[in-house]
Amino acid sequence: MSHDTPTRSKNGRAFMHRWRLALLGCAALTGISGMVAAQESLLPPGFDSAPAPAASPKPNASRPATSTPAQPATAPGSAASTSVPVVQPVPGAPAVASAPVDDGLLDAIDPALLDQLIASATPKFDTPVSSQRSLSRVGVIDEQDGGFPATSTHFLNGAFVEGVIGRMSGDFVSRWGHILVRRALASRLDTPVGMNGADWAALRAQALLRMGEADAARAMVQEIDSGFYTPGLEDAAMGSYLGTADPVGLCPITGLTAAGRQGWDWDLARAICSAFTGDGPPAMAQLDRAMRRGDGEKIDILLAQKFAGAASNTRRAVTIEWKDVTTLTPWRTGISLATGLEPPQDLRAKAGAAYQFYAVRAPMLSLAARATAADVGAGRGILSSAAMVDLYGEIAAQEDPDKAWGPLADKLRTAYVAPDADDRLGAIKELWGDGSDPDRAYSRLVLTAYAAARVVPGDGMADSASGLIASMLTAGLDQNAVRWAPYVKAGSEAWGLLALAAPNKLSAVDAGTLDTFQSNDDSTDQMRSRFLLAGLMGLGRIDSSAATTLAGKLSVDMNRQTRWTRAIDAAAESNNPALVALLAGFGMQGASWDRMTAVHLFHIVSALRRVGLDGEARMIAAEAVARV
Fold first, then answer.
1. Calpha distance 244→333 (Å, rounded)
2. Which of 22, 408, 409, 509 could be cross-linked to 392 through a Cys-Cys bond (beta carbons 3.0 to 4.6 Å apart)?
3. What pLDDT is recorded for position 462?
4. Which DSSP symbol is given to 170?
5. Which residues pair with 154 in a beta bridge?
6. Alpha carbon 208 to chain centroid distance?
7. Which residues sit opposite 589 in a β-bridge?
8. Cα distance between residue 9 and residue 11, in whole Å
9. Does residue 192 register a pLDDT over 60?
10. CB under 8 Å to 232, separation ≥6 — which residues?
11. Integer angstrom CA distances of residue 622 from 357, 403, 421, 496, 605
12. Under DSSP, is residue 86 helix (H, G, I), strand (E, B) or coil?
């Protein structure tokens, strides 16, 4: 084989000669027999000559004979015409003769095959085999860190699990239900039967995204090595990294399994990654071509250009114009936040909670914008009470606090540290507001949970007891709430909350006290009384005769069965807490508590208690009574 430098000719034979060498290189990488690329030595002639092979010893009878690989034949006039072997054959593989290749070889090869050979040389993994993680068990939170037992899903049918999780809308009537489902989805669990581990991660990540839990979703997709990604997990990764305003996180994926993914969003993501790997001007040229071709809407490409321009030295100014934009999408929200921009107010209002889920955890936004989003996130269960207090503490620490949120931060400080108890209680009530916005009102209960726990119980505080107890229970402060038991009136709403939330049964629940509770119930269709009955029955804190009497008055049939009730009861019977948690979340879907029935609540509370999730069962039952 000649290694002379090819010269240009009019018929392009030199160009085809170079492609021939590239093709031979790809063939060597993919193990195609009959093609071996010769390598020219850079050392002086004879310097790297191999010694003559020693004669093979005669094999003894105690072990089988082994054959010595033969040296490859060489063509006259080739670089290997000396005694030096150019390519060492693989032991045990047949020797392949290196012969001159006709320059017209590529003419006879199907272009599709050529593309396949070149693509086969693209790396599929970015981690060594020894460091690759197993797909048999996937998740973020291990059991010893508070997750569910990993074997909970070991024998579950993949199609059944996919039907449960895949049909979750992400909206739950219960804040504690949201927290429970998030914990179940993020747990390190065995891959169900008949399901790929990457798709198992994708299924849960997509559910977490619908819940507004982008950080947990990103942690989930990062549990899978990039070379194992499936299209479903790639889509989950796209949503997760956009949801956390971190599009650069997609770069390892776009270089491996998603290198050939079609779609304007993947094309723009690859251009962004090209810019952040030092290929700035060509990357911007790709985005310019996308703009000319109309690959995606103009606003999406402009946002990509602005973000990619931050990593290049093109010094281009990109102006973002929102006037023709009618909706916010995950791409527009994620990329705009990544560039430090906040979409216009009208688009944010139109997007509603979907935008607030992005904004609530976006550190690049103003504290005022994050506080607005926190009123949605805390009520849903995305933010804890401690996180809310930290946010308001940052607002109060500003030299020039926001005019709207600064006074609220001052009130929260008063609620915690005011010397006078009446001042503290007054500040707490002011933070609650008038209750005109139920979601915001409940988020303010979350905000004041620890301040409410500092209020000393006493007589004459009946009007405030139910609100303070409900506030404490949003953070799970049941022991603090129980201190109010001697001061609340039997049959009041505060009594009902404590009857459900107390770690242990406080006293017998008789028919007379239940009648008093029912007579004071001003909720629609007396749903508060229905939920109290369902919670007490599910927790086993009411005798059967009293339950039967109240159920008859409320026209509630707790024995009614559905396909879902049979499924969650069977999961509880098999002592599978993870499956019970997922089915409980499935039964709590909805925008408000008027979507919940007493029968569903009874089965949820009962199943959770039977599998050892007593705390969650009590908090969900009490929340139902507090929020209806």
1. 10
2. 409
3. 85
4. S
5. none
6. 5
7. 172
8. 6
9. yes
10. 198, 199, 202, 203, 206
11. 26, 36, 26, 8, 10
12. coil
> Residue 538: which of 613, 617, 596 has the closest Cα?
617
Closest CA to 452 of 487, 426, 434, 488: 426
Whole-angstrom Cα distance, residue 11 to residue 317? 45
| Furthest-apart CA atoms within the chain: distance in Å | 109
Measured CA to CA, the distance from residue 223 to residue 240 in angstroms comes to 13
8-state DSSP, 336: H
pLDDT band at residue 507 under the 50/70/90 scheme = confident
Q: Give the tokens for residue 330.
A: 């995950």
Q: Is 486 left (phi over 0), alpha (psi -120 to 50) or beta?
A: alpha
The pTM for the full model equals 0.79
DSSP string of 502-522, one letter each residue = SSS--S---HHHHHHHHHT--
The residue that leads in pLDDT, 573 or 507, is 573
For the record, the structure tokens of 179 come out as: 């927290």
- Closest Cα partner for 206 from 250, 240, 251? 240
* Residues whose CB falls within 8 Å of the CB of residue 58, separated by 6 or more in sequence, listed in order: none
Task: Give the span between the Cα atoms of 243 and 255, in whole angstroms.
Answer: 21
| Closest of 567, 578, 570, 576 to residue 139, by C-alpha | 578
DSSP characters for 344-360?
Answer: -HHHHHHHTHHHHHHHT
DSSP state of 488: S
User: Residue 184 is encoded by which pair of tokens?
Assistant: 């179940």
C-alpha dihedral over 98, 103, 104, 108, to 10 degrees? 40
Tokens in use for 219?
């942690």
Mean pLDDT, the chain, whole residue set: 84
Task: Give the count of alpha carbons within 13 A of 187, CB side only.
Answer: 26
**CA 605 centroid distance within chain:** 27
- For the chain, percent of residues with pLDDT exceeding 90: 68
SS (H, E, C) 245-300: CCHHHHHHHHCCCCCCCCCHHHHHHHHHHHHHCCCHHHHHHHHHHHHHHCCCCHHH
Phi, psi for residue 44 in degrees, rounded to 5: -60, 155
What DSSP designation does 73 have? Answer: P
Give the DSSP H/E element, type plus range, for residue 210: helix 197-210
pLDDT score recorded for residue 111: 59
Cβ atoms of 97 and 75 closer than 8 Å: yes
Nearest Cα residue to 474 out of 505, 510, 501: 501
What pLDDT band is residue 4 in, cutting at 50, 70 and 90?
A: very low
The 10 Å Cβ neighbour count of residue 222 is: 17
- CA-to-CA distance for 467 and 427, rounded, in angstroms? 13
DSSP secondary structure letters along 33-69:
TT--------SPTTTTPPPPPPPPPPPPTTS---PPP
DSSP 3-state of 579: helix
For residue 120, name the pLDDT band (cuts at 50, 70, 90). low
Residue 422 clears pLDDT 50, i.e. is over it? yes
User: DSSP for 541-562?
Assistant: -S-HHHHHHHHHHHT--TT---
Q: What's the length of the chain? A: 628
Measured in Å, how far apart are the chain's first and last C-alpha atoms? 85
**DSSP 8-class letter at 102:** -
What is the secondary structure of 420-483 as a DSSP string? SHHHHHHHHHHHH--SSSHHHHHHHHHHTHHHHHTSPP-TT-HHHHHHHHHHHHHTT-HHHHHT
**Three-state DSSP state, 192:** coil
Q: Does pLDDT of 71 surpass 90? A: no
